[in-house]
Specification:
Mean pLDDT of chain B: 94
CATH superfamily of chain A: Metallo-dependent phosphatases
Shape of chain A: globular
CATH topology of chain A: Purple Acid Phosphatase, chain A, domain 2
Low-confidence stretches of chain B: none
Low-confidence stretches of chain A: none
Strand content of chain B: 25-35%
Structural class of chain B: alpha/beta
Distance between the termini of chain B: 25 Å
Strand order of the largest sheet of chain B: 4-5-6-9-7-8
Oligomer: heterodimer
Helix content of chain B: 25-40%
CATH architecture of chain A: 4-Layer Sandwich
Amino acid sequence: MKIAVMSCIHSNYEALDAVLRDIDRAKAEKIFCLGDLVGYGPEPHAVVEMIRSLDIPTVQGCWDEDIVEGLNSCECSYPSVLAEHRGRFAHEWTKEQIYPDTIEFLAELPKTMMYENLAFVHGSPHSQHEYLLPELDGFIALERVLSTGADTLFCGHTHVPYVRSLDAGQLNIRVTGTKENQDSTFTAPLKRIVNAGSVGEPRHGRPNATYVIYDTDTEEVTMREVEYDYQKTCAAIIEKGLPKIFAWRLAKGMEYAERADDASHLCERGV
Amino acid sequence: MSNWAILSGIEANLEAYEAVLTDIKRQTPQVTDLYILGDLISATKDSEKVIDRICHPKLGEPIPQVCKGWWEEQCLILHGFGETDEPTELIQKYGIATAKELWDNIPKSVVEWIYNLHFAFMELDCLLVHGSSISVSEELSPQTSPLQLFDRVSRAGANRLFCGRSGQTFRYHIKDGSVCSTVTSLDKTAPSQTFETTERVIIGVGNVGHIPHQATYALYSPNSDMLQFKTVRYGSGKGFQ
């Protein structure tokens, strides 16, 4: 069975619509969404309503959480003061746009979901705000997958899709000071992290929406890139008074000022 | 040369703490630094006496460096200064009556003192903490997943992590290891990369006050990396190991 996994829609209805059409064409039977339905973009309510109406299983993203609970992130969310100002403005704008029952919906989203041997989170199993960058230390990455009990961990948050295989993991251990001192070797079977990229605010260098399709029978992952009328969303961002840089980076598919680039940073916030 | 005594979990047992202090004074080479990794108090009235003793070391005793433990965190939660609003963990573990005792038996002045305690100490390449680098509640022990232990010590940028939440004494030495990683992006598959660990050690420092008449703690020399666990028997049937 083919399943589609998408993330980080960020109030971009045009992109969501294009991705849903592509999923339909690819004949995926199930869709999972990894959160960040809102923030940055011009259509928060329309995006949430679409996800709700299609009854797509969704985990809570960091933006969804912040809209519900107020901004309370550790340093990894805003790497610069300017980025923080823009983020705060977008947060307040989004909060004004959406209805109380939309906030209620976002509040009730789970932080993790499991389906067979697959786990779904927004950032990492430890925090919606933690970035699992592809350069993250291999042991830390392996720990994140193993902590879920899954074989494959799907995440988003970085806005850049990737598939990471972690193989032949082993640690040699000696325990002393207890009643039974012992040497042992811990081994981990092949595990994978699949980052679904971003539907509505991609940062892989092109403006196209990204998501992934996973085949549960063959375990094959296909990263999909979908063209759509991003200029329409850019125009709406400017028209609605959101920071113009959001339109600029959407058109470029890249963010220089706000991209997470410290693979060693582990978010201090817990799930 | 510095020599550390590291203890945790006095849990308002003043007699046990005095016995450990006596044992510390006997050590050669002399103990230069004393770290208390939380759980000084419990829900009993004796908590205040223990805090008073810790705050007033006798002549010649090392000045204790104290960080916050699980009991201190529960106390702060009750007073509205904790990480969470509700004392759910305390009530689940000990019941509402204990929550009330903790509220009744810890005076406001002590709460203020607790509020100012550190979460952890980072000394040299060692993290000293009650639970783990992410929470006072997290219990690290030899039964914990090896990668979880690796993560908790690595995320602090440390090579050694001393903790007390489990109450156990142990030295968990991650000697070496490796994992092979391959990343495929939209545009390319990067060559496989092998990550290798440098050694990490997680140390359980025991518990002073929980088990009657038997306290455990750790002695550590950061210069030589020598670690020794001490068991102190006190009160009736006392003896030293």
